[in-house]
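Project standup — Tuesday

K.O.: blocked on the structure for the chain from last sprint. Re-posting the sequence here as requested.
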Amino acid sequence: MKINNFATQFETVFKDTFTDELVENVIETILKNKVDSVPSNLKLEFGIYVFFLKQKDKFHSFKELEEKWNEEGILKTPNAININFENNKELNGSYSFYVGKSEKLSKRINEHLTHHNNHATYGLKLANRKNFNLHDFEIGYWVLPLDNSFSKEIKQFIITTLEQKVREKLNPLIGKK
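H.V.: unblocked you, prediction finished:
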């Protein structure tokens, strides 16, 4: 039963690796790496990014956020998340707005900023919005510290797992779940 042995070993290693301490370190790095524009030095880097909304006061209600976010004519964009609205906390003067991952960080972050309203790729499409200005956001990022000797599949597994755990901690206003 090789699969049982693999599953048992994998579960142990998984729990020992993806700890709360690791997730907190990733979030700390994301907060430390906040910038106002697309970091151009991350073209081929695997990692996690967070859009932070620079706003003194959060929206007064989920309905207000949802109405401002759901602009007519903007297609294939993430939804506002009701359950996260109450749990979203201010972090160093901003609120976590969206959490994502990519194997080409700069390119993916730029797509969120520049894609037009009806672009086929799922994204924030911030340049086309009336209620959100590009200057209202900061972007934090974490780069996966692995070299090219690791397979793309391993790198994707790691960033996918960490993205989920970062999302669970930060409760972004927009996105999945």
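K.O.: great, moving the ticket to review. The beta strands are 47-53, 79-80, 90-91, 94-102, 137-143, 174-175. The mean pLDDT is 89.
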